[in-house]
Amino acid sequence: MEYIRLTKDNLEKEHICCAISNNSDVQVASKKAWLRDRLDEGLVFLRGAERGKCFIEYIPAEYAWVPVDAGGYMYIDCLWVSGSLKGHGYSNDLLLECINDSREKGSTGLCILSSAKKKPFLADPKYLRYKGFEVCDECDNGIQLWYMPFGKDAALPRFRDCAKHPKTDVQGYVLYYTSQCPFNGKYVPVLEKTAQENGIPFRAIHIESREEARNAPTPVTTYSLFFNGEYLTNEQMNDTKFLKLVNG
Questions:
Q1: Of 60, 150, 198, 212, which residue is least crowded by CB atoms under 10 Å?
Q2: Domains assigned to the chain
């Protein structure tokens, strides 16, 4: 397969795979606006030429919207190949492109979020281990930081203290999220409306800067739902899933 790298010149005309639609769709618009600002910071979005979920997104860790200290590393926001595109080696192609590009740029290594067991919207730990990644840090909620150093003396990336013990002081349901994930543009308003209509205490906190993300009380800044201060999940929800969670 051929691969296409998004730039400011082609961003408007190219699709972004994980929310396949036109630019008037709120999901696409929010994601592309977020991407546009990150491109100047070294973000790379590389996708398969075929329409579908086949892409990798990475950025120098000092510019990543996550509470990690990983100076010199390249942070992988997302590596996603699914549907009919799975099983053809495309994940390997994309990861290899990231490795080669990161080495050429003088990076210390790669790091990415995962967990001991596969969680929604996080990298598959079995695949990471197979490709040579190792766990270098872990939070109380089971979210792990994995890394692939390019040298023996590379320092270990670490979660910042604010994320090691995910907890908030906000009562009721509180959702921390960014515009990095396009699905949030559609489903966060759905949850806000559902909560209001059903009398459910709910607050959505939109993380709008890298500094806010680096000081967030959760390792997963794209989407983290809490209840009465305790972390629940990083899985994006529609109204049905949310009500099922609330009603037990």
A1: 198
A2: 3-160 (3.40.630.30), 163-246 (3.40.30.10)
